[in-house]
Automatic annotation (TrEMBL):
Similarity field: Belongs to the carbon-nitrogen hydrolase superfamily. NIT1/NIT2 family.
Signal peptide annotation: none
Upper lineage: Bacteria, Bacillati, Actinomycetota, Actinomycetes, Micrococcales
Residue ranges annotated for the CN hydrolase domain, each copy included: 1-246
A GO molecular function held by the record: acyltransferase activity
Keyword Metal-binding: no
This protein's name: Apolipoprotein acyltransferase
UniProt KW keywords: Acyltransferase, Lipoprotein, Transferase
């Protein structure tokens, strides 16, 4: 399976329409890949909290339609990163009407999976103040037959999420992010930790550039199930193109069957 990660750099000067057009062009250049991945909240700005409400869209809005068209054009599965979603007529348990929602399109351009970010970053500000939390796991079948689970950025700090995903059959994790430079070493370490402890492939696409006065960390990466770096980007805009070996995860799990020794994967009875 051939994977492209588009580590997009942006600042505060572009409109949503301008950035969407630029991103569509970058995706179009990845024809020949099986899976293309974009970063978290790239249309609206990962840290541009004040603009989220104004820039929010539905999952069939202008950004989604542009991504659908280009996915079909290049014949690839496209993880479109995430958008600030405002569904029509829906509010969540906390009374908010915004979610941080990932969009995945198949090679025919159909929206096949969405994932609403479960763990909201901001410590009572930012996402927790403005957005609802997602509640559901989301998994997709990749072109090589593997099963990939979706998560987003801050989710990476919560290993129990990834254990729940492998219990649903996940062999890979696809993680778009807007992870800042201030904690980029946490990002790099946690990607390897999730890969090693779950014996899974990690495909993680971060953001570059500076927006809303926040410098982004870059260092998008593809990590093998033994923690090996198959590829890692630098700090600026970059496209990683990676060929994933067949049976990479299956061979790792068969050769060193750690997961079979889990003892705490079920609720205790009383």
């Amino acid at each position: 399976m051939r994977v492209a990660l588009i580590q997009l750099s942006y600042d505060d000067s572009e409109s949503v329409e301008e950035r969407t057009s630029r991103v569509v062009g970058l995706v179009r250049e990845q024809a020949g890949h099986d899976l293309v991945v974009l970063p978290e909240l790239w249309p609206m700005g990962g840290f541009d909290y004040r603009a989220w409400s104004e820039k929010a869209q539905t999952t069939n809005g202008a950004v989604a339609q542009a991504l659908s068209q280009v996915a079909a054009e290049i014949g690839a599965v496209l993880h479109g990163g995430s958008i600030v979603e405002r569904p029509s007529g829906e509010t969540g348990p906390e009374g908010k009407d915004l979610w941080n929602t990932s969009l995945v399109f198949d090679a025919q351009g159909e929206l096949v999976t969405t994932y609403r970010k479960i763990h909201r970053f901001g410590f009572a500000g930012g996402e927790p103040k403005l957005m609802e939390a997602g509640a559901d796991l989301a998994l997709i079948d990749l072109p090589d037959g593997s099963r990939a689970a979706l998560s987003t950025c801050y989710d990476l700090r919560f290993p129990e999420l990834y254990r729940a995903q492998i219990d649903q059959g996940a062999t890979a994790f696809v993680i778009p992010a807007a992870w800042p430079m201030a904690r980029v070493e946490h990002w790099r370490l946690l990607l390897r930790a999730r890969a090693i402890e779950d014996q899974a492939l990690v495909i993680a696409c971060n953001t570059a550039g500076t927006h809303a006065r926040t410098e982004m960390g870059g260092h998008s990466a593809v990590i093998g199930p033994g923690g090996e770096n198959l590829a890692e980007a630098g700090e600026g805009q970059e496209v990683l193109s990676v060929d994933i070996p067949d049976r990479l995860v299956a061979d790792a799990r068969e050769t060193f069957p750690v997961l079979a020794d889990r003892r705490l994967n079920q609720r205790s009875s009383r």
